[in-house]
Amino acid sequence: xxxxxxxxxxxxxxxxxxxxxxxxxxxxxxxxxxxxxxxxxxxxxxxxxxxxxxxxxxxxxxxxxxxxxxxxxxxxxxxxxxxxxxxxxxxxxxxxxxxxxxxxxxxxxxxxxxxxxxxxxxxxxxxxxxxxxxxxxxxxxxxxxxxxxxxxxxxxxxxxxxxxxxxxxxxxxxxxxxxxxxxxxxxxxxxxxxxxxxxxxxxxxxxxxxxxxxxxxxxxxxxxxxxxxxxxxxxxxxxxxxxxxxxxxxxxxxxxxxxxxxxxxxxxxxxxxxxxxxxxxxxxxxxxxxxxxxxxxxxxxxxxxx
Length: 306
Known about the structure:
Elements: H1 4-16, H2 19-26, H3 30-44, E1 49-52, E2 55-58, H4 60-92, E3 93-99, H5 100-105, H6 107-121, E4 127-133, H7 135-143, E5 149-152, E6 162-176, H8 190-195, E7 197-201, H9 206-217, E8 227-232, H10 235-243, E9 249-252, H11 253-261, E10 265-268, E11 276-283, H12 293-305
Parallel strand pairs: 3-4, 3-5, 7-8
Antiparallel strand pairs: 1-2, 5-11, 6-9, 6-10, 6-11
């Protein structure tokens, strides 16, 4: 099948009646036009044009192919215009589904910085729709097409999505200032933490899954890792419950940084557990994030981390 550029040459010859005029019409040399015509004839096995004293004339088969070429080029122009519209839309809108830690602690700063960079460059800032949820739901939103990009804090993501580390975080064991652990001088052991009822995020949250993964890396039985006293669906609810009770919780350092700095909550050391974790962006498609607002956002986040 000849390519679109070769079909364009044939249509130009049909409209102008000579190779030289066709070359001027489409901005090529006469030699290039002649070469493309020869390539078409070799590919199709059909003689498409003949030279005459008055220029170049299409053969009867060439007339038929030129009409098909016009129709094909019209369709290609419509497709090109449609793709341009889709590209413009992909740059103007972005749907994000993010785990609560990323949605509440990181994305606001990232999005404000992206908008400021767009204003400085004179480019339009994308219209953002952000859903704050847990990691499992963010993955489902991306794989189901409800979100263009997701941000998760879970230790593992399913096959079929591409990922990129966008930030790093650490879980911390926290208690209210009056809790006995706040005055304790020796570290808490993983066994002691596993046997202590905790205020926890719900199953499927990245925080809960990251804690379980930390126990597994330390060699503890997966069935005896977390004892929930209550399960709450947001970090804000967990924080409020810890402040109002004598029950510990394991939370993202990002979500309790101010409470720790001002002494409202106390961090309890548990050195035998590695509670560090990666925060990731996820998307569907190739290794490179989709062109448009998604790629712009992830690229901008990358510049902020360096």
